[in-house]
Amino acid sequence: MDSRDRAPSRTLHRLFVAFFLLIVVGNTSVAGGERDAKPNVVLIICDDLNDYLTGVPGDVGHPQVQTPNADRFAATAVAFRRAYSNNPVCAPSRASLLTGIYPHTSGNLFWDKWFDNPVLANSRTLMEHFRANGYRVEGAGKLMHHHRRSDWDAFPLAADYGPTPHDGQRRTVHPTVPSPYRTVGPIDGSYGPLVNLSLSNPGWHWAYGGWGNGKVMRYQNDADRDPTPDERVATWAATRLGELADAKTERPFFLAIGFIRPHTPLHAPQKYFDLYPLDQVKLPVRKSGDSSDTFMNKVFKSSVKGLRYYRLLRESYDAPDAGLKRFTQADLACVSAVDDCIGQVLRAIDSSRLRDNTVVVLTSDHGWCMGQKDFLFKNAPWEEATRIPFIVRAPGISMSGGVVEQPISLIDLYPTLIDLCDLRGSTVKSESGAPLDGVSMKPLLVDPASQLWDGPEAALSMIHAEEDSITPMSIEDYYDPTKQHWSLRTRRWRYIRYNNAAEELYDHDEDPHEWTNLVDDPNMKSELLRMRAMLAERTGTR
User: Burial letters for 442-453: b for 16+ Cβ neighbours within 10 Å, e otherwise?
Assistant: First the structure.
């Protein structure tokens, strides 16, 4: 072949090689860009969801609870067996977890608006920090108890505690709830399935709304009705996730979803109540006289909600446990209802390209006591009120089906997301703010049995000594962390110290239901002293 004939061939070959390398390098660059891209985050928070849902196989939740969506999610993620709320009541718990600052650090101890607190106002919320790192930040439902719209790029659906019965004039209580429990009112005092209220109560209807009256929620039957507020939020979230998955922009997002249930009122479609036939409902494991060696009734008046609610519920039925059985059925129904909403969100993630680059967290703000120690409410220092589900999936990092035994708390969420998403910059806005109090749990996601976690041995919870305190509180005492009630939970022990110096100590290895207070057992003296010292170091309480 003439050299003149080979020249074009060599030229074409070079062009082909150059084109091939361009494709390879380009694809490698894209792949590297995808690997280096910051992950998206979906945060799902339920309200008042105790350990009936744990995500831990064989755990001690309610034996009948049906939460298939959360269970499937946990099998792909890491579940924390001992996860706890730092303040088991809505407002301070959410303010703490979304600012990463303990209530006693900030002084935001109870129902005050968090954004009026000087420390929290001068510290970045989790949403602000994500936005400062280039994320699009969106949310819906109940996240902060006191909502501040400016923290979000989009927030289309506010918190809605409905549906609630409405008699045509005002919100009221489900017609099946008897007195005296119905005197508690339309939020905490109402439970029962969605039914066509107007059939037996002309003029009655179901209503949407926050704490106000709200607009009509149309309900004929389960097949012909408007969606519940949680269903609205789930549908919005699933739709929005589909849009984000299809979007051309590479800007990462932080999407927070706040479901109300199983917060009271305990209303859900009838199909969820049908999962738990009343005559088959198992009551929470309790012990007669269990409150005798505890001290809540020594520091709070009998009018405090948890003691009063339990007393009124028992008085409302002829059989001693009939009311608690109905309340338990309603709570289980609401847990299964919110599990379906959770499932709708998870399916939107897992059926799209978001699956491999989206951190998903499922948790709650605190638990709820279901009659244990004669208490029916949150805001208590024991396991049922402080323990929460906490499940995290971080693609490429977390161990599928892993279970963490180390106690952690909600305060650790913020630094964990910073670590997982490589967020930069200070979370403190000015010298009046405070740094984060928690510790990243990333080592526990990589290896649930890791001994490398730098966090504390015990999870810390605070119960505010509110206006129902037996000892009158001055305004100074109201905001004084040393005048509150405290609870510490290690792997084995729970230690409680009240502001009158009364104490409780429980050995969870031998007593998982916290039935026997060991504080006066001489064999427990060294452990009691150790726990006292630990609490004093953490809180300044003596």
Answer: bbbbeebeeeeb
Would the pTM of this model clear 0.90, i.e. be above it? Answer: yes
Q: How far is the C-alpha of 332 from the C-alpha of 268, rounded, in Å?
A: 10
Q: Which pair of tokens denotes residue 513? A: 């239901």
For residue 495, give Cα distances in angstroms to 105, 187, 333, 340, 370: 21, 32, 32, 36, 21
Closest among 155, 162, 174 to 211, alpha carbons compared: 162
The stretches of 351-441 forming alpha helices (DSSP H) are 383-386, 413-421
Q: The domain containing residue 230 runs over which residues?
A: 37-287+295-464
Q: With beta carbons less than 8 A apart as the criterion, state whether 208 and 160 touch.
A: yes
What phi-psi label fits residue 92: left (phi over 0), alpha (psi between -120 and 50 degrees) or beta? alpha
Average pLDDT, the chain: 92
Measured from the Cβ of residue 265, the count of other Cβ atoms closer than 10 Å reads 26
pLDDT band at 58 (very low <50, low <70, confident <90, very high): confident
CB atoms within 10 A of CB 494: 25
Q: What CATH number has the domain bearing residue 412?
A: 3.40.720.10
Question: 45, exposed or middle or buried, with CB in 10 Å at 0-12, 13-18, 19+?
Answer: buried
The helix or strand, by DSSP H or E, that contains position 11, with its residue range, turns out to be helix 3-36
Q: Would 492 be classed as within a structural domain?
A: no
The answer to whether residue 1 scores a pLDDT higher than 50 is no
Distance of CA 165 to the CA centre of its chain: 26
Number of domains in the chain: 1
Q: Is residue 386 part of a domain?
A: yes
Which of the two residues, 30 and 142, has the higher pLDDT score?
Answer: 142
Q: Tell me if 495 is assigned to some domain.
A: no
Q: DSSP 3-state assignment of 269?
A: coil
Concatenate the DSSP letters of all residues of 420-471 into one string. HHT--S-SB-STTS--------HHHHH-TT-S---S-SSEEEEE---TTBSS
Mean pLDDT, to the nearest integer, of 192-207? 95
DSSP state of 282: P
Does residue 300 lie within any of the structural domains? yes
- Residue 305: is its pLDDT beyond 80? yes
Helix ranges, 281-397 (H): 296-299, 305-315, 322-350, 383-386
Q: What is residue 176's three-state secondary structure? A: coil
Alpha-carbon distance of 515 to 290, in angstroms, equals: 6
Query: What dihedral do alpha carbons 84, 89, 93, 95 form, nearest 10°?
Result: 170
Helix (H, G, I), strand (E, B) or coil at 192: strand
In the chain, the percentage of residues whose pLDDT exceeds 70 is 93
